[in-house]
Amino acid sequence: MMTPILLLRIVAAAWFFAALCRPAVADDNELISELNEEVVQIPVTVGSATGQHAVSLTATTFHPKGNGPFPLIVLSHGNPPNAADRPAIGRFRRIPQVKEFLNRGFAVLVPIRRGYGATGGNYAESYARCDYASFTQAGAEAARDLIASIDFAKKLPFVNPAAVILVGQSAGGFASLAAASLKPAGLIAVVNFSGGRGGDPQKHPGVPCGARGMAETIGKFGETIDVPVLWHYVENDLFFGPEYAKLWFAAFEKSGGKGVLVIQPAFGKNGHSLFTTDSGIAIWTVQFDKFLKENRLVPHQTSLSANRMAAGERKDDVLAVQ
After folding, report:
1. Which end of the chain offers a freer environment for a tag, N or C, measured as fewer CB atoms within 10 Å?
2. Which domain range does residue 154 map to?
3. pLDDT one-digit tens code per residue, 187-203
């Protein structure tokens, strides 16, 4: 017969083994002083049936050593297919990816848009039914949050307000294009990692709903985007297959948008996660650096080798988002 003490030891050993096997996650409550990490609240004015009112977006700032001012990257998260997963976005702390930007001399602001993660509240980016998708309003609401974030960040003492780059993954890439179309002062470029809406890798892998409507919306964005845009997609993206990336980029170019489309070879089981997966860093940074150099956007900061922090210190769980 098993004694209580022996049972306790077995349970403790099992718990310890499970803890060892659990993936390392950057705790949202744990600030990394070496990255000058800080949690801030960004005011944004929104409208409703009762008039306009102010809400707050939870955001995280990071910046390199020193006082700056540093050029700024506003990093935007995606949207999970299942609405119940939106809270899991937290503060979207992709620490290895953030380090890559810091090592290149950028400050980073990561705002959490309304209805997601640490901000919570009412979801503002619905595009109605899949068979009658309306992306214009979804883009306008996402852009509202990003414009408020840019305005907030430009007042920070370590930020160069004349050098802002919008970087977004999936729905965050779409949001970045929407915000860029409003021509915010100080914006110098956009980087769109696998951007779009309407994808669902389970229900219709690689084939987003409302793809033609998305092309029309992006065409409208392209009419007023006057900064270079890097479109970075992957061959085996199960949210947005490469034919749709080409369709949307063609609409962007036709309307006057300037940029370059890169479609990487297949990555893992779903290339949509290339940016948010640590092993994808060596892939996307090559194109990111090339884009910065070709458009003369390279910040004057310290060398990568001198500032690179040890790889694998912290990792986030990867949440597939669109």
Report:
1. N
2. 4-307
3. 999 999 999 999 999 99
- The band of 2, judged by pLDDT with boundaries at 50, 70 and 90, is very low
Cis peptide bond upstream of 161, omega within 30: no
Question: How much of the chain exceeds pLDDT 90, in percent?
Answer: 77
Is 319 inside a domain boundary?
no
Instruction: Identify the CATH number of the domain in which residue 71 sits.
Output: 3.40.50.1820
**Domain count for the chain:** 1
How open is the CA angle 63-282-251, to the nearest 5 degrees?
85
Question: Is residue 320 situated within a structural domain?
Answer: no
In sequence order, the 6+-apart residues with CB closer than 8 A to the CB of 255 are 219, 220, 221, 222, 223
Closest CA to 231 of 195, 267, 192, 197: 192
Distance CA 224, CA 202 (A): 35
Q: Choose among 64, 66, 42: nearest CA to 54.
A: 42
Strand spans (E) along the chain = 38-48, 51-62, 70-76, 107-111, 159-169, 187-193, 229-234, 259-264
Is residue 259 a contact partner of residue 228, using CB atoms and an 8 Å limit?
yes
Whole-number pLDDT of residue 111: 98
Mean pLDDT of 31-38: 97
User: Are 88 and 80 within 8 A, CB to CB?
Assistant: yes
pLDDT at 291: 97
Predicted pLDDT of residue 124: 93
